[in-house]
Amino acid sequence: MNRYQFEDLISEYIENELSFSKRKEFESYLEGNPDALEMVNAIRSNIKKAGALPKVKTSSDFNDRLLDRIRSESDERTDGSPIKGLIFGFSPIHASIMMGLVIAFVFINIQLFSPAFDSQDTNLLYTTNEKLTDPDLRSLSKTNNAQNANLANLTGDSTYADSVYQSKKDYSKKIQFVND
Amino acid sequence: MSSDKQHSPFVYTDEQLIARFQSGDEGAYIELVNRYKDRLTNFVYQFLGDVEQAEDIVQDTMLKLYEKKHYYREIAKFSTWIYTIARNLANTELRKRKRRKTTYLSRMSREEREYEIPAVQPNLDENLQNEFIMERVHQAIKKLPEHFKTVIILRDLEELSYDDISNIVGVPLGTIKSRINRARLQLQAELQDLK
Lengths: 180, 195
Known about the structure:
The complex is a heterodimer.
Chain A: H1 3-14, H2 20-32, H3 34-51, H4 62-79, H5 92-130, H6 135-155, H7 158-165
Helix pairs in contact in A: 2-3, 6-7
Chain B: H1 2-7, H2 14-22, H3 26-48, H4 51-67, H5 78-107, H6 110-113, H7 126-143, H8 146-157, H9 162-169, H10 173-190
Helix pairs in contact in B: 2-3, 3-4, 3-5, 4-5, 5-9, 8-10, 9-10
């Protein structure tokens, strides 16, 4: 046993928690090292002194003061006066979580419903354009459709593009296969 | 009367008392307060070194016990739970103090900051000598680093088991044993001149 091992086992030795073999080893180390024995005795004595330190006691009116505090705190609550540190009855953490959830809910709703409104508006425009009878307005509408189609190609909006090109001719019948 | 004896609070364990209090028995609460007020005050006093403040902390602890009684679940010993509350409140107070102390120390003169505890005086009479030794031990414990101080107070002053200390501090049992051993070694080095 070396010095470090000895120091690690002092408390376990004092509290009789060492196994028989370890205890024997520890005691043989103590026999060979009088300073180690002195150290163990000093620690044992310090434990006793610490245990004998004068105990502090509570004052005689401790219970009365405590019960007064309990009563006054419960009175405050029954008065309906706001409890200190609460926001609308929620603790600051809960209040901030609630606020975050409300903001998230509003944001998600805006995100979900705004594209729907846009598409409704577009459909409305198309039905209006299809019903146009005036030739000048029709040509204007065609120009608009072409512009919209270009826009759709640029933005990659396929539904938009499909609706614009739905009147295009069907070329499938004109496809000719080359014989080998 | 046997029934009286059966209902006497002294026959109940702490866990039974808190269960009774949770079901609305205020008498059980008073009994728990009586059982723990001195122990906790002594425990907190070792950290703060001020009896009045220690008592205030224990009052807060007992108020917490009253208000949060339903937070206790019988998975841990009641003593562990109440000591943990008191320790956390004492730590909060210590942190507040540290912030204040930084300011005070910077205002103090060099002479005021340096002080030394004299060695044991051989001519003092036995009572005085004893008192002096106790003060030295108290100061030596106070000087220990926080993690050593807590375990040494809980073990050597409050005489709690290693398991309870491990639960209160929230550190594995092996670490607690090692901390207590190292704390005792440090204390021994500090009190070397005491016989």
